[in-house]
Amino acid sequence: PCDFLGSSMPQMRGYCSFLVQKDKEAYEKTLGGLPLQTPLPEIQWYYPSAALWVFVGRNPPESLNLRGRPEHTDSISNDGTWHLQLSGTKTWFLRPSPQLIAYLNQNGVSCHFNESTRIRIDCKEGDILCVNTRLWFHSTVIPAQKAKSVSYARDFYCEKPSATNETEDAKGSKGEMTNLDGLYATNDIGEGSVIFTENDMPNCELHRSSTNANCEVVELDDGTSALVSLRPINAGEFFCVADSDDEDGANYEEDMEEEEDE
Question: Partners of 262 in the beta sheet?
């Protein structure tokens, strides 16, 4: 981290995250050294676990916008996550999920957006973004800038979790978080096997690689899209498709660049 954030490699570009958890002493020391442990102290926040997310990006001036993960939702059970932008700038793109719109409609809340609505939020130093990443599709971009983009985040509940959940958290069954998401093989899979079709594909992002893809999306004879293995895949191995620039995030970058040119 010191080399990445230092001045010895001024043209380095990168965007990464890590999670502080499991080690109580490291967690408390890290959290205690940050300018804000919890926002709006007059509100009672409940934290599901001793976990702190840290996001770091650097993108020197005159570089192209640096994209994070493609648009996705997170598999979380808590009510939301607050992100504090410690330095630099990070741009968020949010889009309501069908689940969010259905929830609002069922509870008589009128909303002035639909599933195609995109919201852009430019988080600058000192800004706090509160969002439920299960109900909002989201992606992020690090714009070209002199400053390093550094932010940290905590997952929270709006109400105190039940005693059952607290017990499970203490045992670690729900309290342990991860910044690795994806789909993996539960059994060995042979080359050329259909893993999923568009009709039964789980709602989860696939890993991407420019050098070691193990599957690809193809169109079957009946016109159905399917995920097919390119080589034998061992049980426990994550499904990974070839890296591609043809993503929603690329469209976001183009939109940003067009705005900057205007």
Answer: none
Contacts of 166 (CB under 8 A, 6+ apart): none
CA-closest candidate to residue 253, choices 50, 93, 61, 57: 93
The enclosing H or E element of 2 equals: helix 2-5
Distance between CA atoms of 215 and 182, rounded to whole angstroms? 14
pLDDT, one tens digit per residue, over 139-185 is 999 999 999 999 999 999 998 876 545 444 443 333 455 555 567 77
Round to the nearest angstrom and report the end-to-end CA distance of the chain: 36
CB 104 within 8 A of CB 20: no
Sign of CA dihedral 224, 227, 230, 232: negative
Residue 41 DSSP code = T
- Per-residue pLDDT reduced to its tens digit, 16-56: 888 898 899 999 999 999 999 999 888 889 997 889 999 99
Token couple for 212: 């070691």
pTM of the model: 0.68
> Edge to edge, what strands does the sheet with 194-197 contain?
194-197, 225-229, 215-219
Contact 54, 152 (CB under 8 A): yes
Q: How far is residue 75 from each of residues 43, 80, 181, 217, 246, measured CA to CA in Å?
A: 25, 11, 9, 23, 24
Other CB atoms within 10 Å distance of the CB of residue 97: 19
Confidence band for 216, pLDDT divided at 50, 70 and 90? very high
* Structure tokens, 201: 């594909």
Sheet of strand 66-67, all strands in order from the earlier edge strand to the far edge: 66-67, 136-142, 90-96, 119-123
